[in-house]
Design goal:
The protein is an alpha/beta fold. It has one domain (3-303): Purple Acid Phosphatase, chain A, domain 2 (4-Layer Sandwich), CATH 3.60.21.10. It has 9 helices and 12 strands. Strand 4 (116-122) and strand 5 (125-130) form a beta hairpin. The protein is globular, with a radius of gyration of 18 Å.
Length: 304
């Protein structure tokens, strides 16, 4: 048995953008990106799709009016209705109404978790979809409520011998830490608590995040961490993930067929910055043993 799915994140759709804002984003061409992404994702013929948050450009950065916020949600929903596989979402920090801070319009349109939703997506595989913005202040935070909910989900998954995939918008493990930086620079608030919980929650075989617009594929202890770059700019793509029968996790990064848009996005940053966004070759197209997945699936195979 193998399971194939798509991970896409940070689409940052903005229907009326007058400028592109910070690199590598290309907000003025977000309609083009949205339209190109759906057939490209459908071509993968995935079992399901994960969206890692920041569907739109709300939050506090992009001067999006409430009218345009609601229009952007309608546009994304209409385009994603053409996807042929089920899609599951977590919210990002730019998915709230920039004028009110409310996520309600998003909740009304997409199946967004209020706290943590657990969804069966394949035999022996479940998603744990975390809303890290569920309480004020609206910053990415691993709260006590989320921690307890994940521990309950893990207990149920262990009882059923299921693999759990944790999806949240922000990183849980730092990348480059310079002298004087906080140990968890660039991570979700409460990252150390979450990491301790992940050690205990042995059904969690992998985590999936976006937010930093960087591709990264790592094995931390016995958990695979999958961080995915943005769709709205360089490297302009999404991941295809395969959980293989022998417990390996395989990643293939698909770049949208928009060469002039990709080149325009690359032109906005230095070569070093672009290389950081896209990650190393193995961050995009790598294969890692997922030890927890291997143990869980080996048990299920012995019982079949």
């Amino acid at each position: 048995m193998s399971v194939r799915f798509v991970v896409v994140t940070d689409t940052h759709y903005h229907p009326t953008a007058l400028r592109d804002w910070g690199a590598p984003k290309m907000l003025t061409r977000s309609r083009e990106v949205l339209a190109a992404s759906v057939p490209a994702i459908n071509a993968v013929e995935a079992d399901f799709i994960i969206h890692g948050g920041d569907l739109v450009c709300g939050g506090g950065s992009f001067d999006l009016s409430t009218i345009d916020y609601e229009l952007s949600i309608q546009d994304v929903a209409a385009e994603y209705a053409k996807l042929r596989a089920p899609i599951h979402y977590v919210p990002g920090n730019h998915d709230s109404d920039a004028q009110t801070g409310s996520f309600e319009r998003l909740f009304e349109t997409f199946p967004i978790p209020r706290l943590l939703d657990v969804v069966d997506v394949a035999p022996g595989v479940r998603l744990a979809l975390a809303n890290i913005y569920h309480a004020a202040p609206l910053i990415g935070r691993w709260s006590d409520e989320l921690d307890q909910a994940l521990r309950r989900a893990d207990a149920a998954a262990r009882e059923d011998h299921c693999a759990l995939l944790l999806v949240l918008h922000e990183w849980i493990l730092p990348n480059l830490v310079r002298p004087g930086d906080d140990d968890d620079v660039g991570c979700i608030e409460g990252a150390s608590v979450l990491r301790d919980t992940l050690i205990d929650c042995t059904s969690v075989v992998a985590t999936f995040s976006g937010h930093r617009h960087v591709n990264r594929l790592r094995l931390w202890r016995d958990i695979v961490l999958v961080d995915t770059a943005c769709l709205i700019g360089h490297p302009l793509g999404f991941r295809e993930i395969v959980l293989e029968e022998d417990g390996f996790l395989q990643s293939h990064f698909h770049v949208l067929d928009c060469p002039d848009l990709l080149e325009a996005s690359r032109y906005r940053s230095s070569r070093e910055a672009n290389e950081r966004y896209e990650g190393e070759e193995l961050d995009r197209n790598g294969v890692l043993l997922a030890p927890r997945l291997q143990r869980i699936w080996a048990w299920r195979q012995r019982q079949s």
